[in-house]
Specification:
five-stranded mixed β-sheet; 13 helices; Glutaredoxin; elongated
Length: 334
């Protein structure tokens, strides 16, 4: 046990580039997947990460590298590693008054840092959840949204939502229509695309039971979301919206103008036509029309879905979609 404890290190890492609580969650989940990492606490409020790890299994460079891979800058601020053998010597030896005072000061500093970090983490988490779960007006704060389960035992209300000529996957005569309001820089939208959409496509779209519509809802605090939405509309003009849609979600950390143009080239689009479309702002009004319509329908964050008019908010699990889809299919059979 003593040898194992000697291998444990603790580091405080400052993070640059976090814009919201979802960024902190993304970093925390990514680091927890690393072998050798025993504890991770990310504070969006303080822009820092506390990580405890086994240096026999993983080193700090690997941890910093993972943070860089998901799009954030790091710098080690404090070395919070206290070698256990030194602590034992202080306890077992004959400490001087100065040694005792220094030890107490260090201990109190560490405790204060630990509880301050925890408190600010909790405050930031609660604040983020209040914003997400509050029912704001369409003109209020827009955000990425966590999944919110539909209430049980109540007949869901329906909203008549128009596809408005937007890109469609699936049969025109499908009994169930899903309209998604989304954007390409939102991490929750990317999570839905990666984890849930493939199952919906395989089990319902390809079987002719679901028609799927994508509408734009770029959030203002995502600097590349508007142009990415315009670029996808420009790709749609050449009949390759869904290929471009997949390309953007597959490269979410690279949505600058040059990358958007490169993706068009990679997909074999007419690049001159695409670049002119993107550069001229031709699709600004189209994207804005989707955003305005979404606000009228009560969309205040991404992703938001309407399944035959039944509203479902957040990066829901496949089972949440399956439940409503099956309910709608069975209703039509009665």
């Amino acid at each position: 046990m003593e040898n194992q404890s000697k291998n444990i290190q603790q580091k405080q890492i400052r993070i640059k580039g976090m814009h919201c609580q979802s960024c902190a969650d993304k970093i925390e989940n990514s680091l927890r997947d690393l072998v050798g990492v025993e504890e991770v606490k990310v504070s969006f409020a303080q822009e820092q990460v506390f990580v405890r790890f086994d240096r026999e299994q993983i080193n700090l460079d690997t941890i910093n590298g993972r943070i860089g891979e998901i799009g954030y800058e790091v710098s080690v601020e404090d070395n919070l590693n206290f070698p256990k053998e030194k602590i034992i010597k202080i306890r077992l030896g004959k400490p001087s008054v100065l040694t005792v005072l220094v030890s107490i000061t260090l201990l109190l500093t560490f405790i204060n840092l630990f509880y301050t970090t925890n408190l600010q983490n909790k405050i930031a988490s609660v604040a983020a959840r209040v914003i997400v779960e509050s029912e704001s007006q369409p003109t209020g704060t827009l955000k990425e949204v966590l999944p919110s389960q539909p209430s049980q035992g109540q007949q869901p209300s329906r909203i008549e939502v128009n596809a408005d000529g937007n890109p469609v996957k699936g049969s025109k005569g499908a009994p169930v229509t899903i309209i998604e309001f989304s954007e390409f820089e939102c991490p929750f939208c990317e999570r839905f695309y990666r984890q849930t959409f493939p199952l919906i496509e395989e089990n319902y779209i390809e079987t002719g039971e679901v028609r799927y519509v994508f509408r734009d809802f770029p959030l203002s605090f995502h600097q590349n979301a508007q142009k990415a939405a315009e670029a996808a509309e420009c790709a749609d003009e050449q009949g390759k919206f869904w290929e471009y849609h997949d390309k953007l979600f597959g490269n979410q950390r690279a949505l600058d103008i040059n990358s958007l143009k490169q993706y068009a080239k990679d997909l074999g689009l007419n690049t001159a036509k695409f670049n002119d479309c993107l550069g001229s702002g031709k699709m600004v009004s189209e994207v804005q029309k989707d955003f305005t319509d979404g606000s009228k329908y009560g969309v205040s964050g991404t992703p938001t879905f309407f399944i035959n008019g039944i509203k479902l908010v957040g990066a829901q699990s496949y089972s949440a979609f399956e439940q409503i889809i099956e309910q709608e299919l069975n209703k039509d059979e009665k």
